[in-house]
Design a protein that fits this description.
Strand content: 15-25%
Strand order of the largest sheet: 7-6-5-8-9-10
Number of strands: 10
Number of helices: 7
Helix content: 25-40%
Largest sheet: 6 strands, mixed
Oligomer: single chain
Distance between the termini: 35 Å
Shape: globular
């Protein structure tokens, strides 16, 4: 499955919202014309089948020596579980922090030192949370081969962080492909696409709203 078909599915089920004229407000206060909620994939059987099979095939193609899949908490857990079932692989997940009760686990599921792991992530923006997961797995003795994500914004900050952390990421689709499909399918106009691309070049600069 190619990145264009994945983008079509995300737009069809409204897992990605494009609202240049009525932007969303991020926790940081930044006004954003795009919002992504890949949890909606799980609610649509057609999109779910396409996405999960694409995750599994990407893992198999890019990381054939993988031994365990690890999902990011919480959005990546279900995707990791389904892909692991398709590939007949063990699966676990990494919490945002250690539990405050029981054994205080951060990594859930069986993981042995030296095992080769692929992280399954739903979305990569600045890559901070993804890298934290990778570092937690490395500290536990795992060999992290890389990350497979559903969608990436392709933000410069995120790309730089991944490079510095020596993390390889393969996304099923990305911001540029999504914009191309959105214009072709008439979700947005060419003028709105220009706003989106201006925003993505520097999210902290609100001037994109005035284009």
């Amino acid at each position: 499955m190619n990145d264009t078909e994945i983008a079509k599915q995300l737009l069809r089920i409204k897992a990605v919202f494009l609202r240049p004229g009525n932007p969303f407000t991020w926790a940081s206060g930044i006004k954003s014309p795009i919002y992504c909620d890949n949890r909606l994939i799980l609610s649509d059987p057609e999109a779910r089948k396409i996405v999960e099979e694409s995750i599994a095939s990407t893992v198999k193609e890019k990381f054939p020596e993988v031994e365990v899949l690890m999902g990011t908490s919480t959005a990546g857990i279900a995707h990791a579980a389904i892909a692991a079932w398709i590939l007949n692989l063990p699966m676990g997940y990494v919490r945002g922090g250690n539990k405050d009760h029981g054994r205080g686990n951060r990594i859930e599921g069986k993981l042995e030192k030296g095992q080769k792991v692929v992280v399954i992530e739903d979305l990569i923006s600045t890559a901070g949370s993804c890298i934290e997961v990778v570092e937690a797995l490395r500290e536990a003795g795992a060999i992290v081969l890389g990350v497979v994500s559903i969608f990436t914004y392709g933000m410069e900050k995120g790309l730089q962080r991944l490079k510095e952390a020596e993390v390889t990421n393969y996304s099923l689709t990305n911001f540029d492909t999504l914009c191309n499909v959105a214009v072709a399918e008439k979700y947005i106009s060419t003028e709105e696409e220009n706003k989106l691309k201006k925003f993505m070049s520097n999210p902290s600069d609100p001037s994109w709203q005035n284009i």
